[in-house]
Automatic annotation (TrEMBL), chains A, B:
Pfam families: PALP. Its EC number is 4.2.3.1. The lineage of its organism: Bacteria, Bacillati, Actinomycetota, Actinomycetes, Kitasatosporales. The keyword Lyase applies. Belongs to the threonine synthase family. This is Threonine synthase. GO terms for molecular function: L-serine ammonia-lyase activity; threonine deaminase activity; threonine synthase activity. Residues 91-395 form the Tryptophan synthase beta chain-like PALP domain.
Amino acid sequence: MATATPVAATSDVDLGPATALSCRECGTRFPLGPSFACLECFGPLEIAYDYSGYDTEELRKRIEAGPASIWRYAPLLPVPADVAGKPNLNPGWTPLVKADRLGAELGFTAQLHIKDDSGNPTHSFKDRVVACAIEAARAFDFTTLSCSSTGNLAGAVGAAAARAGLRSCVFIPHDLEHAKIVVAGVYGGDLVGIEGNYDDVNRFCSELIGDPAGEGWGFVNVNLRPYYGEGSKTLAYEICEQLGWRLPEQIVIPIASGSQLTKIDKGLQELIKLGLVEDRPYKVFGAQATGCSPVAAAFKDGRDVIRPVKPDTIAKSLAIGNPADGPYVLDIARRTGGAVEDVTDAEVVEAIKLLARTEGVFAETAGGVTIGVLKKLVESGQLDPAKETVAINTGDGLKTLDAVAGTGLTATIRPTLESFRAAGLV
Amino acid sequence: MATATPVAATSDVDLGPATALSCRECGTRFPLGPSFACLECFGPLEIAYDYSGYDTEELRKRIEAGPASIWRYAPLLPVPADVAGKPNLNPGWTPLVKADRLGAELGFTAQLHIKDDSGNPTHSFKDRVVACAIEAARAFDFTTLSCSSTGNLAGAVGAAAARAGLRSCVFIPHDLEHAKIVVAGVYGGDLVGIEGNYDDVNRFCSELIGDPAGEGWGFVNVNLRPYYGEGSKTLAYEICEQLGWRLPEQIVIPIASGSQLTKIDKGLQELIKLGLVEDRPYKVFGAQATGCSPVAAAFKDGRDVIRPVKPDTIAKSLAIGNPADGPYVLDIARRTGGAVEDVTDAEVVEAIKLLARTEGVFAETAGGVTIGVLKKLVESGQLDPAKETVAINTGDGLKTLDAVAGTGLTATIRPTLESFRAAGLV
């Protein structure tokens, strides 16, 4: 296992309040660099910050006066203070939708909100994490931005690299659907098809990082992963600020690797520690598709260990059979009194239609998983509809059209009033 | 021709600063209602406002303190003051992208910007106009939102109606591509296929408005058109505010019916009159696809009359062969010293790729038309690259994937370093 690539000289690295890399397991610290695993215990590395100089109310004002993007939270991210002036996609500050009609259908008496991340530049939450990774890539003088991907991430990396003027080279399984290849390739970077499945692509990327051929390459979800992951914290920041600097009482988050859920919890904890929100209980719920639900299975069984599965679900962007952050997700769900639940593909499709019909939000399959699980949690009494709740839609239905391909015309008529009346729509 | 549907009692209609409907040709005034053509001369009706009570600096502050959507400009739109609190899609406040890399490729020495309206909720500028139409629909107690459409508008109407809790019934040609049917139908409204072409659909809708079967129906682009059109003004407002309350020196806008271009000009003129921007010359340029370029042809020939054409272009969302506002577009281009230009479908595809490669913005074909025309205008000396310029991308490339379907993999390799090196990418 490649625990670390050669670390660039980091003494002059300006990544704002980030001061070091810290092992989530053993706490050992390392200088900021393109490393992702602890040299002592192989645990995952996280960013350590110095937030000690912040006055709460000054910080709040500074954030509120900031740009309508994740960069309003630059003081809390591993990015330089002048990040908003650099060429990047400026994702974030997506709508928090008051979902009154969906809430009524699900029996909510408290406010239900949808955090709709399809509003990002390439229409998924991946723009948040890639935006942070690209600042790290600039700091470490990387010239090529790379990743392994089966969809959303490829487009997010291609677009972000184009805007930043970096080369991109993205690796995907060679037999991906044509539409996904088009969306990933249109930004003009190199798009390499690997003869193999996603696991083969990942293995190849790990090899490439240790090879001279990969020198100067930043793999957003490998050697830049600690920086990349921090982008997900901004979902927590935005939700709380959009609620008027308040924690939601319940929050439902989809699980792929589990990174997003753990980072949202980290973000909420940071806001509490910084005094930006009042400390009060909140419950975190995780959502998986039944066809790839190793974390939900462990939660229901009361296990701490995640048993890897072979994914079989239409929710491709959540189809990680061996989620690296699964154990942390279990910890958070249990610590906060939440749960991890799963829904079938049929329920995913129904939930996509339910959200579209009630709120005009067309979610990708991952969003269908989240809304389907939200419904199931209410019905099973695990989530309280009398408490303020936020569910996250991480991407856009335009990217997973096949899931609702059965949607058709209500009627076909001749262009006459007679024919229209006969159709029985009035 | 149906000049007006029975006008609802409008004395108690609250549409903010809107006071009446006014004929663009003869100036005759009518009460606010679901009317769209002058009873005297058949000219198009526009909204008349009372902006007389506004103090410039108070208005500016009020706008700047408003929501990150078109509703920050509620004081200048035909909507009630409390519009932001009603259930709607809250479109607008989309990014104004500093397009330095595209500018460099095109030889700009002044700043080039892309106003990227793919950031709207259903990823096209149509959300702006539909959001205004829906407020009029509420004011006139309509219970069904309707339109004729070949694509973007159907989705925008379906989504907005779903959020607002109104019924929707959208009419489209029955043989539309399946993906477009899915996108329009997913919001759960009625979607009726008409056996005929888009013209047949339009004719049918006009008939339906005059028929009891259409009672209580608001057709956003017919009997609500005066309100609907005003949504496009917000593009002008946002561009100027995002420039720091300054007019751009040059602006390039795609032409379908020509409504968007004329409303943007109207918006710029309003900002000047209100004192929100300094009055200085600006040039307006119109962009068409060669396969549907009746306005560009008239401009080049020095004609005032638009000769209708049969559209034949991949830019379907601009394919209106007899653009209603064509004569007004000619007036504006000539008055401001701009031009109307057109590009071939091959140039459209190249422009989509150019914008994606340089700025990470994936535009639909209409955006390709605008960027292609921008390039041609610079090359032909009609647009000055030493002057600050804004070009508008009105929609998202995910909706017109076929245009760039030729995009493929750079290379296909086995998952080995040897195979990667042999591909010649490093």
